[in-house]
Amino acid sequence: MGSAEIICVGTELLLGDILNSNSQYLAQQFADLGIAHYYQTVVGDNPQRIHQAIATACERSQLLIFTGGLGPTPDDLTTEAIAHYFETPLVEHPDVLADIAEKFARRGREMAPSNRKQALQPQGAQVLPNPVGTAPGMIWHAKGDVLIMTFPGVPTEMRAMWQETAVPYLRSHGWSQSTIQTRTLKFWGISESTLAEMAGDFLAMENPTVAPYANHGVVKLRIGARAENQAAAITLIEPVEEQLKKLGGIHYFGNDDDTLAIAVGQLLKQRGETVAVAESCTGGGIGHLLTTIPGSSTYFRGGIISYDNRVKVKCLGVSEDTLTKVGAVSAEVAEQMAVGVRESLGTTWGISVTGIAGPGGGSEEKPVGLVYVGIAGPKGVAHERLNLGETRSRQWIRNSSACSALDLLRRSLLSDS
Amino acid sequence: MGSAEIICVGTELLLGDILNSNSQYLAQQFADLGIAHYYQTVVGDNPQRIHQAIATACERSQLLIFTGGLGPTPDDLTTEAIAHYFETPLVEHPDVLADIAEKFARRGREMAPSNRKQALQPQGAQVLPNPVGTAPGMIWHAKGDVLIMTFPGVPTEMRAMWQETAVPYLRSHGWSQSTIQTRTLKFWGISESTLAEMAGDFLAMENPTVAPYANHGVVKLRIGARAENQAAAITLIEPVEEQLKKLGGIHYFGNDDDTLAIAVGQLLKQRGETVAVAESCTGGGIGHLLTTIPGSSTYFRGGIISYDNRVKVKCLGVSEDTLTKVGAVSAEVAEQMAVGVRESLGTTWGISVTGIAGPGGGSEEKPVGLVYVGIAGPKGVAHERLNLGETRSRQWIRNSSACSALDLLRRSLLSDS
């Protein structure tokens, strides 16, 4: 059926005021639908330059997707510029006008006269309804057999319209003859290169493909399969998924939108157990991650943020003697913190973090990035020592420490079952 | 001198694997330098399509900025495609080759033969050094008086090269005859529309311009001034900045990269005072925000995450009677939490949050988004009731609650001085 091209219209993109997330979203959608896609263009709110972008695109692409410039202000001139380029008059759609007026009425506001232009479309174009905003888009077979679709620039509106109208249209009109389905497996505590080496043979596969990624310490293997339909693609993915999970062993913690906090929460819920946190350098970050999940109150009872050593002593029962002898950033203190919070809050598990997040505060013996995570549970107490590296940012070290503590709990829960 | 056009080369952009942050960065840079910029193009790693993008760009722009495709793999063919388009042979730069070999040696690795091609540039091109990676770029006056610059796709490398080499080059060669300087004033506790109405006259100004933005509850006024040089631009900004600060009153908390946690930290440090947190629905988020700042241990002592009511009673001394009578999400409990953590941790100030973050757990009387923030200090205890709205996400409500608690402390510190 030909290839698709994205034309984003908006001076705010040319000023760098906003990030072009619409292009990324649409590019992913083309990949999923199996529609070829070779060019993306950004152009300002200027009729001549929009005309030039259309002229160039028409020479090389058959499906032109426009985003932006559908609003009511004089700056919004995408529809007009397209109609003008194809020498086609604009016609008013009374049903669209009524719909816009009604949307205003429902919010208790009056429709401004400028909104009237949002009901104009080139003669022969079909209206592409906007379920979440006022500006509708269009689907139009313009001259020269180019298919044009327009969307507002607001990402939530664009995405809703794309999913609800454009995708069914493209599928039913033969644009999408295959689909790409992806599944991302997530791992913690293993480096991208180590996992990539282990997965060597898989990375050379052609369908499904397997590609490694890493992001904030989470290492990912993305499996992508192309097939006639979703079910066939998933049939290609599943055996590879099983093998890669086995390969990752204990490091594998979930798929797609899963996080370590979700993984830990599911395990605790299954077992009817609870956890409390004792945090020093993470300052509340572990509790924050755990409570991101709705319903976490089932297994998360709370914690002590012992940023100051006095709080470690008073609220967690850490020994002053230990603090003097080995310092706050030590295996002993991490374990005492975990034991202390478990006892104080009466939970099944206590996890703790103490470390040097930097950028200051490091020494030769205890450099920035040295972190101890501790865990106390029904069978006793343990710790792990992490060297997160002196070149990492404070933010990276803190996030990695919080995730490592959650991962230590996850592994303890798994090995305990 | 003409206008600039960005051409990003990379199949990963066409697959939607990555967000095109390079375009946004360069667009902002053009705006800052006062260089006109009307088009951005994305094209895959394909010689014919790169040629087509160059042909189109040469017709309408005089400065072509390429990012991506400078690596050592067969996919990386930006330099080659540019040279080929302008019918110019590639020549090897021995100094670049030596530099790449040395960079490998320093990391204790051997240079792969494929890296050799990174030392090739079109005849007549100047090497644009890469201080942070292996691939250098080029500055080249190609035929037809087009100035071409190439950069790697990795954002950190591209940005370092842009700042260190491209900006000085463009300034010294007359591309930038003016500069745009911006300053963003930040406000909390006031809506974007209210502030915009108050700032009405300023929004109509032409130089400097003033534009309102809002992001995660922080409302911003961005002042942008165009002038011959930085000092002249700042002279335009400063009087407007002063007036807008006055206009925002107590709601103004900082500029540019400032956060509420930074504002609070500065005030506490100045006064030699300390704070502790008692967190329910934020689960550690306030502590996490406060400890984002290096050196926060000077004024942040720690806190209690009392997600479960038992922790509120045991660690914060909240009355069981109060919990039974008015519930955990109440003014009384917020105040008792603040008093409790202040006393327990021995700080000047105690701040607290208790609320319903959703999506579940709301009722008619206490809907999702109902949050109480409390504060206890040398002069007593107080609270504020927030209605953050039932339609907001859990994440939004939690972040807004944490910021509101910090802001209550900020205002208390200011009114107390």
Looking at this protein, list some descriptive labels.
25% strand; 17 strands; 6-stranded mixed beta sheet; alpha/beta; Maf protein; 5-stranded mixed beta sheet; homodimer; 15 helices; Molybdenum Cofactor Biosythetic Enzyme, Chain A; 3 domains; Alpha-Beta Plaits; 417 residues; elongated
Structural class by helix and strand composition of chain A: alpha/beta
User: How do the strands line up in the largest sheet of chain A?
Assistant: 2-1-3-8-7-6
How many strand elements of chain A?
A: 17
CATH superfamily of the largest domain in chain A: MoaB/Mog-like domain
Can you tell me the residue ranges of chain A where pLDDT is under 50 for at least 5 consecutive residues? none
Largest inter-chain contact set = A-B, 72 and 72 residues
For the termini of chain A, the CA-CA separation is 54 Å
Fill in the CATH topology of the largest domain in chain A: Molybdenum Cofactor Biosythetic Enzyme, Chain A
Write down the overall mean pLDDT of chain A: 93
Described by strand count, sense and barrel closure, the largest sheet of chain A is:
6 strands, mixed
Fraction in helix of chain A: 40-55%
Oligomer: homodimer
Q: Provide a count of the helices of chain A.
A: 15
What characteristic shape of chain A results from the CA principal axes?
Answer: elongated
Give the domain tally of chain A: 3
State the name of the first-level CATH class of the largest domain in chain A: Alpha Beta
**Hey, roughly how much beta strand do the residues of chain A contain?**
15-25%
Please tell me the CATH architecture of the largest domain in chain A by its name: 3-Layer(aba) Sandwich
Computed Rg of chain A: 28 Å
